[in-house]
Design brief:
Strand content: 5-15%
Largest sheet: 3 strands, antiparallel
Number of helices: 8
Order of helices and strands: HHEEHHHHEEEHH
Radius of gyration: 19 Å
């Protein structure tokens, strides 16, 4: 089961992945989002890093995570990404601009750097093209003891990647606990809580300014 910090890490990693891909290409639907995120987990695992915490199972068109749609809905409803191309919104970009300067080395930086490789090597592919590519890959399969199998030969329902069950993987979230706790607060804020047109937000900003002026003049 993912921890709160693990879930926050996944949100950060997916924002970074989508931002890298969208710099030069589009995410043209759920299929591409699924396959890109699978590659993030797979390449991280090959590097000995738990780059995410999303379980992927064999489904109709290859590996599929039932947890990823929940995460994407969360990011969309929170106003971090758009619903169509999954471009980062100003709020999503704020998260990256706040977080990335704090992740410059160690396992966390290594894990996030995988997103750049995926964007470079796979970002230009369409969802349909990625589906075919990933479908034919030979990958270590969790339910087969880590043995290599071609995905298109696996039975439906078998677990392919279960990052939380791989005890030998380095956990990047452990390297930045304070940052993830801060980001969790930001992720939990509903969009109207930071909307400057919201009367409650305007009143809070006015009260904060008045208090600051009072403290400076006394």
């Amino acid at each position: 089961m993912r921890t709160r910090r693990g879930s926050t890490w996944d949100a950060l990693a997916v924002l970074k992945l989508f931002d890298e891909v969208n710099r030069t290409n589009d995410i043209d639907g759920n299929t591409k989002a699924q396959k890109l995120t699978f590659l993030l987990e797979l390449l991280g695992q090959k590097a000995g890093i738990r780059s995410g915490h999303l379980r992927f199972s064999r489904y109709k068109y290859g590996p599929y995570s039932w947890e990823l749609p929940e995460l994407l809905n969360f990011l969309e409803n929170g106003g971090f990404i758009t619903r169509t191309t999954r471009q980062l919104t100003p709020r999503g970009r704020y998260v990256l601009e706040y977080a990335l300067p704090e992740v410059t080395d160690g396992a966390a930086a290594d894990a996030l750097s995988v997103t750049e490789r995926i964007a470079r090597d796979y970002g230009h592919r369409s969802g349909e093209n990625l589906k075919k590519l990933v479908y034919s890959m030979r990958v270590p399969v969790h339910d087969r003891g880590g043995e290599l199998h071609r995905i298109n030969k696996l039975p439906t329902g078998i677990d392919i990647l279960v990052p939380m069950a791989e005890a030998n993987l380095i956990e990047p979230a452990d390297a930045i606990p304070d940052l993830l706790d801060e980001l969790a607060i930001e992720f939990d804020l509903p969009p109207d809580a930071i909307d400057p047109t919201n009367p409650a937000v305007r009143e809070h900003a006015r009260a904060t300014l008045v208090k600051a002026i009072q403290e400076l003049t006394h």
